[in-house]
């Protein structure tokens, strides 16, 4: 994608901003509304080098979203799921689907690349996944939870793993926790007890996919 750097002509603002829009006198500063101009030569957007590990060398990951309230979180998780090459994303209960504009806002097109499915019955889904030989891990705090960083080396290499993310307020359904093979958490050393759901999923998903040596 070809990008252009613009600079606001208001000396009290002088904001620099980037757009994928060719030189146009109608482009105004998004901060103060003043006129702007192209400041540099056009350039191509940077791309991130792909991992040298092929997808079939990495632990297979399935994401299960349990009643997430925020459509923006759902979109961000879909984008992360695309980035890690997740096998599938299950959107359960009230979790928004990609038909929701807010989901598309943060997914930025990833919803077109990730296989997803909505279901109202997460308990039946988890039972079906277990019957298919899929390991079930829940990302949740509590007395029964163990540090994910200390357990990433215990991920079964011969079968997929489903990671369940719960509601931003209530967490994972207790009935689902009872069905899981392991409850894992991210260490927290501040005053808050948890991270934003999309942030927590991003950390956990990349750790699960890339956190151990592939042999």
What does this molecule look like?
The chain is of the alpha/beta class and 215 residues long. Helix 1 packs parallel to helix 2 and helix 1 runs parallel beside helix 5. It starts with a strand and ends in a 5-residue tail after the last helix. Helix content is 24%, strand content 22%. The strands form two sheets. A seven-stranded parallel β-sheet has the order 7-6-5-10-8-11-9, sandwiched between helices. Strands 1, 2, 3 and 4 form a four-stranded antiparallel β-sheet that branches. The longest helix is centred in the middle third of the chain and has 14 residues, at 71-84. It has two domains: 2-44; 55-210, SPOUT methyltransferase, trefoil knot domain (Alpha/beta knot), CATH 3.40.1280.
Give the SSE map:
Blueprint: E1 2-8, E2 16-19, E3 36-38, E4 43-44, E5 61-66, H1 71-84, E6 88-92, H2 101-107, E7 116-119, H3 122-131, E8 135-139, E9 146-147, E10 161-165, H4 174-179, E11 182-185, H5 197-210
Parallel strand pairs: 5-6, 5-10, 6-7, 8-10, 8-11, 9-11
Antiparallel strand pairs: 1-2, 1-3, 1-4
Helix pairs in contact: 1-2, 1-5
């Amino acid at each position: 994608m070809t990008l252009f750097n613009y600079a606001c002509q208001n000396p009290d603002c002088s904001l620099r901003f980037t757009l994928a829009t060719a030189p146009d006198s109608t482009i105004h500063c998004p901060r103060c509304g003043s006129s702007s101009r192209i400041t540099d030569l056009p350039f191509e957007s940077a791309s991130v080098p792909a991992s040298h590990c092929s997808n079939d060398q990495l632990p297979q990951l399935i994401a299960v979203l349990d009643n997430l309230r925020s459509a923006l979180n759902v979109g961000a998780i879909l984008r992360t799921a695309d980035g890690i090459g997740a096998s599938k994303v299950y959107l359960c209960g009230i979790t928004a689907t990609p038909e929701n504009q807010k989901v598309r806002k943060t997914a930025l097109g990833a919803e077109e690349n990730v296989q997803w499915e909505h279901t109202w019955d997460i308990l039946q889904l988890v039972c079906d996944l277990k019957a298919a030989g899929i390991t079930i891990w829940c990302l949740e705090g509590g007395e029964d939870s163990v540090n994910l960083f200390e357990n990433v080396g215990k991920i079964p290499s011969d079968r997929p793993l489903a990671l369940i993310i719960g509601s931003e307020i209530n967490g994972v359904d207790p009935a689902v926790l009872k069905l899981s093979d392991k409850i894992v958490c991210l260490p927290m050393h501040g005053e808050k007890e948890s991270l934003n759901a999309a942030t927590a999923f991003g950390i956990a998903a990349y750790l699960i996919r890339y956190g151990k040596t592939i042999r």
